[in-house]
Design brief:
By secondary structure, this protein is an alpha/beta fold. The strands form 2 sheets. A 7-stranded mixed beta sheet has the order 4-3-2-5-6-9-7. Strands 1-8 form a two-stranded antiparallel sheet. It is elongated, with a radius of gyration of 21 Å.
Length: 277
């Protein structure tokens, strides 16, 4: 049975007595070249441990266990998890759990993530993985194309999501996957996102305070940064203007226009002004 063929996939689901669950974002990839590209992009060896999120019926899992030393497949759907477990090879561990609740410290350092992520979960999962005390070294994620474009945005189109990823890692879109290559077909196209973690964050900072500053800056997106900062940090317009000038940032700038270097300079000035105390 070839689960990249819609008829075979529907038959397998019917035999298992299950149907795709919209609430879990279950859209099964049925394009083998895309599956092979995702697995190849992870650069796996037999020394690697891979975390697969939402393995479903295990189409990609089958490719992963052939190249990785160990695969930990975390599946929230109990029936699908039980199906995967039935004929699991020795290097596959199936965990029936919500990935948001899964303890990433159970994995060895330097593990890799390969996943077809439900659209509703993307931002939350990215934050969990990147901010974990045991983050992955590499991630290859199949996500909504629009979200992938937001993650890889350049100054002028930056967002909190883009900064939260780019502060810790270097993201790159390496492929597009049209909606008709899934079953059931979603409403949007997808993209393959390769994320390689930096050896160190982009600059030294208290991450909690840095993203407090960033969220304040994006708090009123249509306003200039000086106004957003004043409102978000509960300070005066005059102090916001002074901080921007000290950081060599144009006073009329907006949050989406700033580079990571400019956020670093602004963070340093805000820290000097004791705004985080």
């Amino acid at each position: 049975m070839d689960l990249t063929q819609p008829d075979d996939l529907r038959l397998a689901l019917r035999l298992a007595g299950i149907a795709p669950k919209k609430g879990l974002g279950q859209h099964f990839l049925i394009d083998r070249p895309a599956l092979e590209l995702i697995v190849a992009a992870a650069g796996l060896t037999h020394a690697d441990t891979v975390l697969e999120v939402g393995p479903g019926l295990g189409v990609m899992t089958g490719l992963l266990v052939q190249t990785a030393g160990k695969v930990v497949a975390v599946e929230a759907d109990k029936v699908l998890a039980e199906l995967l477990q039935r004929e699991a090879p020795g290097n596959l561990e199936v965990v029936n759990d919500d990935i948001i609740l899964y303890d990433l410290t159970l994995l060895p350092r330097g593990y890799k993530v390969v996943a077809n992520i439900p659209y509703y979960l993307t931002s939350k999962l990215l934050r969990q993985l990147l901010e974990s005390p045991n983050p992955p070294s590499t991630m290859v994620l199949l996500i909504q194309r629009e979200v992938a474009e937001r993650v890889t945005a350049k100054p002028g189109k930056m967002s909190i999501l883009a900064l939260s990823v780019q502060y810790y890692a270097e993201p790159e879109i390496i492929g597009q996957v049209e909606r008709h290559k899934f079953w059931p077909q979603p409403d949007v196209d997808s993209a393959i996102l390769l994320i390689k973690r930096r050896p160190q964050p982009a600059f030294e900072a208290d991450a909690k305070q840095l993203f407090r500053l960033i969220k304040a800056g994006f708090g009123e997106r249509r306003k200039q940064l000086k106004n957003s900062l004043a409102g978000g940090l509960n300070t005066s317009d005059e102090l916001s203007v002074r901080l921007l000038k000290q950081a060599n940032i144009p006073v009329a700038a907006r949050a989406q226009e700033l580079t990571l270097k400019q956020w670093e300079a602004l963070y340093q000035q805000a820290a000097k002004a004791n705004l985080f105390n």
